Amino acid sequence: MIGSGIFALPSQMAASAAPGPLLIGWVVTGVGMLMLAFVFQTLAQRKPEVDGGVYGYARAGFGSYIGFSSAWGYWVSAWVGNVAYLVLLFATLGYFVPAFEGGSTLPAVVGASVLLWVVHALVLRGVHSAAVVNTIVTIAKVVPILTFVAIAAVGFRAGLFTADVWGRTTQVDGAGLGSTLEQVRTMMLVTVWVFIGIEGAAVYSQRARSRWDVGRATVLGFAAVLALLLLVNLLSYGLMAQADIAGLEDPSMAALLEHEVGSWGAAFISVGLVVSLLGALLAWVLLCVEILRLPALEHVMPAALARENAHGAPATALWLTNGCVQLLLLWTLVNDSTYTNLVYLATSLILLPYLWSAGYQVLLAARGETYETGHGRTRDLVVGSLALVYACWLVYAGGLDYLLVAALFYLVGTGFFVWARRESHLPVFTPPERVVVGVVGVVSVVAVAMLATGHLAVL
């Protein structure tokens, strides 16, 4: 979960919400994400035979095509997120090498491409080797975050925090922040990005020593990350005026620490972010290949995507993933896609996988499946329902534009599902699935029409 989001959080939140709406949004996010964490914990324990987390739960509850769409959306979200990581990584290196400034210049894209294929080579050597490297990186990237929190706590000025609690007078780029509800809605889409990864242990459930470990990892990881996010976000509002924070370039945490302690602070945070991004990139490349491998084993994705090399790495899935990353990197070169745009697109694509997982817990509890003694059924029904409501809210918060583009990605991916079913000589769609595909097709036509007329643009 700790990748790039926490380092860019101060400016992104300051551009979205004043302290009052911010606190409301964090309460809703904290409760909603906690419910999702409990969902993944509960499902890992009650359905230990279901592998693949967001993919497995969607397939078990709603059929093969919904399972495929969950895996596909998660996969696209993950590799688009990797492009965002690479853009921000080289934008951060621009602090030291001006040619990389912005992250989408020609030198930056060339550097990002080289790094991408270095990571590719590392993962080809095996998932275990890559995981060991990621453990070391995880420890290293927490140190600068804790340093920022300590310094910000000392420098916190309550007067700045309370100057305009509800955002009535604050303006960002000459525009107001909007109503309290609008501020909450806007900031909550950012919060989803910083929590993406909460499902990671569930995705890797097949490799876990115990399904109880999956549940513990999910809840403990959520609690630790939530504490860091709240401290970084809230303390930053007491260091500079909100409008000034909103105008900071990413990584805004570096600029804030520079404001407090001088240039060494920016350099220190920038180095920490580079380490964090390298670890996040590696972790999410691993998640990308895992979320393709499992469906391929169950005839939901083409069988070739489950093929492993001599080191046990799903090589075909890895080549497909990083090939897509490379193409979108080149797109940023000619289209000047920003880190924030990539983040919003990646976030919108992961919302439905979360929704299906929450829906599956509600389905199990409502049916009484795995609740033969009745113990815990009411609790799990309430938790699942709250998570489902939260997931629906997130789809709304994501906005229509990103939902339309997501439909296009789902429609393109449907070809892989048809391929997989036919090569396994299995029926392609059930009657309800044909309805779902039809809806996706209609929404995609609308998206294409809006793109052609210039009424839709997210990159």
TrEMBL record:
**Span of the signal peptide:** none
Coiled-coil intervals: none
**What is an example of a GO molecular function annotated in this UniProt entry?**
arginine:ornithine antiporter activity
Q: How does it sit in the membrane?
A: Multi-pass membrane protein
Q: Which residues cross the membrane?
A: 21-44, 56-76, 83-100, 106-124, 131-156, 186-205, 217-241, 261-289, 310-331, 343-366, 378-396, 402-420, 435-458
Q: Which GO terms describe its cellular component?
A: plasma membrane
InterPro entries named among the record's database cross-references: AA/rel_permease1, Amino_acid_antiprt, APC_superfamily, Arg/Orn_antiprt_ArcD
UniProt keyword DNA damage, yes or no: no
Single biological process term from Gene Ontology: L-arginine catabolic process
Q: Which UniProt keywords apply?
A: Amino-acid transport, Cell membrane, Membrane, Transmembrane, Transmembrane helix, Transport
| Cellular compartments annotated | Cell membrane
Q: Which family does it belong to?
A: Belongs to the amino acid-polyamine-organocation (APC) superfamily. Basic amino acid/polyamine antiporter (APA) (TC 2.A.3.2) family.
Q: What is this protein called?
A: Arginine-ornithine antiporter
